[in-house]
Write a structure and sequence with these properties.
Length: 436
């Protein structure tokens, strides 16, 4: 059976991680621009990043060379609405129109995320996600983007990994705005983000120039079974959807996709749930590994052992995760599955021959795709895979020290080099996964 003919073979990025041009054409500061100092490895920042804002044509040409069918990017809210006036910044919008036109000309379907963590400072100064009164600003932004771009963009995602930006941004303080707030305040933020999602979906459907597909990208964690006996599979499923683990899949996805309150989300009222639970068109998740491996003290998974293989992020390599993630999430939520992120940071550098050889990444992608293919073979409607990331970029608090890209970026010169993995991925796309 394998992958469907119209499978979205793609790669992903996010505005703040690649664009640069941090104060150009009317854009104002976002929370990463404003608070970066003292919080990021080696003092790196996103002012220039990959300079994609100026080099998008070259970047799209490289995507075309790889043969991408889709490209997931995010819009910088502060480019579209640099202040609270409600007036669209036409130059900022034009950048995305140009990008989208370039993609379409190259035969690549654009896929857009509205919020990939770069809140405009003017929203933050009004209390950001902590204040329910600010939700209309997000809704207005979502509405404007859809109105202006939905003739060309069919696939939309409201939020990227709310669990990650809330926990890292407002609990542990590792990500912008680098706060450590009380549990009650974090709950208010969580509730507001969920409400913002629901209200935005309603507004987006109304504003769309044609029927569009809407999803939201969660950071899914999956427990993979120790073996494939029915008992172990059931244990893994229960553990995957455990309801009281704040950053676990169902804690977020059950209210959004099933309209169900979780043990961890009992502060959502019935009225809230009605807003949050809007029909969506696909189930998107970002997944890098399965739970329970690699951590030295966590021997709960019998397949974990000392010296377990890790990526350059120290993340365990657990290729079966996409199979179990796709299968469990489809069984629970019943929607077509889109992998919106999966990939690895590797110790890439330009080698003596001038190329970037990354066999580890080739193997990582190969194995993960085999898992996804198995899910597709067994009848899970898998509609796409977006490798993270199209190019090396600003890896948040780790700055430029971690490289996830299919395209190597030499930051001092902004030269791009297709890594071996990009060539491998090109073959996968060309054969629709038959070469795996
Ligand atoms: C995330 C984000 C990406 C990251 C990537 C690697 O999942 O944290 O969506 O912006 O860069 O996941 O950490």
């Amino acid at each position: 059976m394998g992958f469907s003919k119209d499978f979205f073979w793609g790669a992903a990025s996010a505005s703040h991680q690649i664009e640069g041009a941090y104060l150009e054409d009317g854009k104002t500061l976002n929370i990463w621009d404003a608070f970066v100092e003292g919080h990021v490895a080696r003092g790196d920042d996103g002012k220039v990043a990959c300079d994609h804002y100026h080099r998008y044509k070259e970047d799209v040409a490289l995507m075309k060379k790889i043969g991408l069918k889709s490209y997931r990017f995010s819009i910088s809210w502060a480019r579209i609405f640099p202040d609270d006036s409600g007036k669209i910044n036409e130059k900022g919008l034009q950048f995305y129109k140009n990008l989208v036109n370039e993609l379409i000309e190259a035969g690549i379907k654009p896929m857009c995320t509205l919020y990939h963590w770069d809140m405009p400072m003017w929203v933050f100064e009004k209390g950001g996600w902590e204040k329910e009164e600010n939700i209309p600003y997000f809704v207005r932004y979502a509405e404007a983007c859809v109105k202006e771009l939905s003739d060309k963009i069919e696939y939309w995602l409201t939020f990227n990994e709310p669990e990650a930006f809330i926990s890292a941004g407002y609990e542990s303080g590792e990500h912008a705005p680098f706060l450590q707030l009380s549990g009650e305040r974090v709950k208010a933020i969580t509730r507001n983000v969920m409400l913002a999602h629901g209200r935005a979906v309603l507004a987006m459907r109304k504003a769309a120039a044609r029927p569009i597909k809407i999803g939201t990208a969660h950071a899914a964690c999956v427990t993979s079974p120790a073996n494939e006996t029915p008992e172990e599979i059931e244990k893994a499923r229960v553990s995957t959807f455990e309801t009281d683990r704040p950053y676990f899949c169902s804690w977020w996805a059950d209210p959004v996709f099933l309209g169900k309150r979780q043990a961890g989300t009992n502060y959502l009222s019935d009225e809230d749930l009605k807003i949050i639970h809007q029909p969506l068109d696909f189930y998107a998740f970002n997944m890098y590994n399965a739970d329970g491996y690699g951590a030295p003290k966590n021997q709960s998974n019998p397949r974990s052992y000392p010296g377990y293989p890790l990526t350059a992020m120290d993340w365990p390599i657990t290729p079966e995760c996409l199979y179990w993630g796709a299968r469990f999430c489809y069984e629970r939520y019943g929607l077509p599955i889109m992998i919106t992120e999966n990939g690895m940071a590797n110790l890439d550098f330009i080698m003596l021959d001038g190329e970037v050889h990354d066999p580890q990444r080739i193997d990582y992608v190969h194995r993960h795709l085999l898992g996804l293919k198995r899910a597709a073979d067994e009848g899970v409607p898998v509609i796409g895979y977006q490798y993270w990331s199209i190019m090396d970029n600003f890896e948040w608090a780790l700055g430029y020290s971690r490289r996830f890209g299919l395209i190597y970026v030499d930051y001092p010169t902004q030269r791009r080099i297709l890594k071996d993995s990009a060539l491998f991925y090109a073959e996968v796309i060309k054969t629709n996964g038959e070469n795996l």
